[in-house]
Amino acid sequence: MKQHHIRRLGFGILGVAIALGVAISVVLARPQPLFAYSVHSGRLPLYSDAPFEPDDGIRVLADIERRISSAPAEIADAHSSYRVFIVNAEWRRRLTFLNNYGAGGVNYYPLGQNVFLRQGDMDRLFQSNGQRVPGPRTLAYFGAHEIAHTLIGQRTGAIGNWKLPVWIREGLADYVAFEGQVDIDALTAQLRAAHPDLDPAASGLYSKYRLLVAYLLEREGLSVQNLFSFGDSEEEVLRRLLAHAQ
Prior knowledge:
It contains 11 helices and 5 strands, in the order H-E-E-H-E-H-E-E-H-H-H-H-H-H-H-H. The model has no long low-confidence stretch (mean pLDDT 92). Strands 1-2-3-5-4 form a 5-stranded mixed β-sheet. The longest helix has 28 residues, at 2-29. By secondary structure, the chain is an alpha/beta fold. Strand 1 and strand 2 (44-48) form a beta hairpin. It has 3 domains: 1-30; 34-157, 3-Layer(aba) Sandwich (Glutaredoxin); 164-245, no CATH class. The chain has helices at 2-29, 54-69, 90-97, 139-156, 158-163, 166-177, 184-192, 200-203, 207-219, 224-228, 234-245; strands at residues 37-41, 44-48, 83-87, 105-107, 114-118.
């Protein structure tokens, strides 16, 4: 009898967990009802849970479109629609970012065509300390970076995307978000000087990964398809990059 009750309790807990997982998946796939404000420009809609000037939203969408349109031909997609959500309220961030709460943006490919960005205005995201994200990483940059993950996933498939080394997956997404404009020599000099921006673990930035991907594509002549099946380690590519720069 005791084992029967334990089994029933286990099935009950499992049922609740499955129901909760399904509910969260539905919200992440169709979150529009949680966001009262929106604007569309071409194939890109922008949603927010805080009011914004429509012209500002259209400007951001045009910037995102320009960035993702610069993607290498192997992953380019000029037709699909991608939805961008700016999540200002903390409870919505908890719901949509899940265990990535501190990130600037998240993408749950292949679960829909949605990307979620943390709170911000129509130019910059806000850091956890309330300050605006500095430097070249605008709201449009974050939107393009997250959409680029979907572009990559559409080419590799969900399992292939999951298997990609982090430095390739994040480096290529950053390469797209910066429109392929990477000063390889300047970033290599910063890497040699141990600039904190080139330390992903310390800075949370993907500059080092973007540098390595740019080096492979532009200096070694790899195609993006070659990159997806690439077998060399991050350390080996870094060694060649530094040797090439001497």
